[in-house]
Amino acid sequence: MQSGPGGHRVHGGRYPPPSFVAKVRTTPSEKTAAKVQQTLLRRQATVQSRLGRSLRQEQVDHTYSYTMLFNGFALRTARKNLEAIQNTKGVSRAFVAGSYTLPTVEQADTQALQVALATNQFTGKGMTIAVLDTGLDTAHPAFANAPADAKFTKDYVSGILQAADLNAEALMPGVTADDVYLSAKIPFAFDYAGKDAQVAPGSKWDAANLEHGTHVAGISAGYAVDGEGAVSFSGVAPDAQVIPMKVFDDSGTGAATTTILAALEDACRLGVDAVNLSLGSYGGFTVDEDALINDVYNKLDAAGIMVITAVGNEISSSYMNSYGTDAPLTGDPDNSVVAAPSVYPANLSIASVEGQDIYANYVLLGDEKITYTDSQTSFLGLDSYVSLLKVYGDVSDDLAAPYDYVMVPGYGADSDYEGIDVTGKIAVVQRGGTDKNGEPITFVTKIQNALWKNAIGILVYNNDTEHPDDCSIRMATNYYQLPAAFISYNAAQKLAAQPLGGVALRRQGPLAA
Predict the structure, then answer these.
(1) Do 420 and 362 belong to one domain?
(2) CB-CB contact of 250 with 210 (8 Å)
(3) At what angle do helices 287-302 and 257-270 cross, to 10 degrees?
(4) Which range has the worst mean pLDDT, 36-40, 343-347, 491-495?
(5) Using CA atoms, how far apart are residues 234 and 238, in angstroms rounded to an integer?
(6) Which listed residue, of 10, 303, 437, 461, carries a Cα 20 to 30 Å from 143's Cα?
(7) 275 plus 130 within the same structural domain
(8) Average pLDDT over residues 467-473
(9) pTM here?
(10) Does 103 map to a domain?
């Protein structure tokens, strides 16, 4: 069963009991990190003992303890016990932990990425990236290169294991650097869901269903060359080290918040530079969880660790809700497309728009779409304006798109129209200029002059040759209703090259992806 859009598990039937997170009250007064950690663990043990007495008739399994980013622990028990846990002395907060669904791998055109990387001078040298995902195919050739100036050596990892009690050590007692250090490219690897050091797929089924982690790690820091020595693939930071932290279980049922928290704590203790979380929930979790997790990400940010999160692949926050409608409730009409944990302010949200239609206003010159910025007060579109003129008899009934246009010389001053007939046509006028009195020719003046010359519309083009594709200016036009739009310098040159052609204006049409 599922409860709410966040995917909180509810105990019932063959489903396992949910995981709870309990936050323990603490007063940090110890000086050293090791003493603080041991003190917190003792306090947690005291609270757990109280829970054991109050829930002695219930099955309770303690799964994780947290002492780095917050003071608390996770346990698995029946959902009906939540209130008893919340009321236990020493517990400041308790909630049902959420779960993230297994992400899917989408095929993408990496040509643009490869072009960008060709001129990129930042290679990730000396950096470490923790990838919290489905694991990693550690034998993949994209992770065979040995980075220069590797930050994490085997001695460094061994020293961390000896000096700090990682969650990995609690989950796999006796773990050593020989278990988790695989290579200079992969200096630390651990399965926080399976509680062992095996992050690679264990079977062909695993490889097919859990390849997302390898996909993400490759984009982050993969690097491969072909037989001739040519680079066949490069990630964003090919010289960075990859720290695969497997948080999804092998069954593909998802990644629990409790597991992700354990991995995040170890990433912080290890001292990674960045954490990648290409996972998310469709609609967020409980208020209590949001408050605690938000504080966790704030602490990671304060520690100088960049947490990079995926915005999500959903069309709305209500996608795959428990009502089966994929639509929000009328009482809560949120249609946000950003998923947790990407919504937390401290995290960097990443989204892709590849393959999506971009809607914009454009001038249709033959088959070419030239974008424009509408004026501030053009309430009527060109076609609607022409229709209105027909009603009043100001233009002939046979006037229809594509409309003729005229390149007006100068800057659209009244004198620039001498010998030019723009009646029933679109006037194309350059931005800027001064009149005979040395006063600037404003947008309003340009529009006013075109209106008085019986033009049906005006296109003002940019005179900024240093930014020839800039069409971002929105003209303030007061009360004048003549359809007016702003186009780029390059767009005007295309119009000038075909002076006998006609154009049609479209509002909010799709451009090529």
Answers:
(1) yes
(2) yes
(3) 10
(4) 343-347
(5) 6
(6) 303
(7) yes
(8) 85
(9) 0.63
(10) no
